Amino acid sequence: MGDAWILNQIWTKLGLDEIIQKLLKDMNHQTEIERFIFAMVSNRSLIPTSHRANRRLDSR
Fold first, then answer.
1. pLDDT tens for each residue of 14-58
2. In this predicted model, which residue has the larger pLDDT, 60 or 12?
3. Residue 44: CB partners within 8 Å, gap ≥ 6?
4. What is the top-level taxon of the source organism (predicted)?
């Protein structure tokens, strides 16, 4: 949990949350797409050798 918290702090300090929200503001989403993007980025950053990531690389 600590790693994800730190990554979220960096994400926020860089302003990535606001940038993504501004880019998506005209699309009437009922969910917070920025949080989904953060989840995908943090998963790839924190667990780069996950089974799912390896499967995607193998199919290329």
1. 999 999 999 988 888 778 899 999 999 998 888 878 766 555 555
2. 12
3. 53
4. Bacteria
Q: Which residue has the tokens 């790693």?
A: 3
What are the backbone angles phi and psi of residue 40, rounded to the nearest 5°? -65, -45
Residue type, position 19, single letter: I
For the chain, what is the total number of helices (H) and then of strands (E)?
Answer: 4, 0
Tokens of 12: 């926020």
Q: Which residues contact 3 (CB under 8 A, 6 or more apart)?
A: 46
